[in-house]
Amino acid sequence: MTDRDYYRLIFEYGILSVLLVLDYLTDIENYEECSKIESAIRQCELITKTKIKRVIDADLINETTKELTGKGLTGDGIYGKYLIYAEDILNKLGYSQIVFKEIILEDA
To answer: How far apart are CA 4 and CA 24, in angstroms?
Structure first.
């Protein structure tokens, strides 16, 4: 995929899905793809004039799921959809049988 592909995926699947992919690719040390994702995120930041968090934590998950809840979707299944979208992106990259498990976040 190209930087442009990742840029499109951020808007198609959401930043959380793309960050899950970035996290996975970092873990397996595929830094070439990570660099393309980082470039796409920087481009989004320039266009939206918004700083995008790179760390997946409770705040980011709550913020992104709240955004979709406001569009009429229910909260419980939204995070699961982001996981499915991340798996779809990885399948497009040729990584099959990747299954994300939901991150259980506890309030501190």
So the answer is: 20
pLDDT tens for 28-81 read 999 999 999 999 999 999 999 999 988 888 888 888 777 666 655 555 567 778
Place of tokens 């501190």: 108
CB-count burial class (<10 Å; 0-12, 13-18, 19+) for 77 = exposed
The model carries a pTM of: 0.82
**Letter for the amino acid at 31?**
Y
> Cα(52)–Cα(39) distance, rounded to whole angstroms?
12
DSSP class of residue 29 equals T
Cα 88 from chain centroid (whole Å): 11
Quote the CA–CA distance of 26 and 15 in Å, as a whole number: 16
Structure-token match 């481009």, residue found: 43
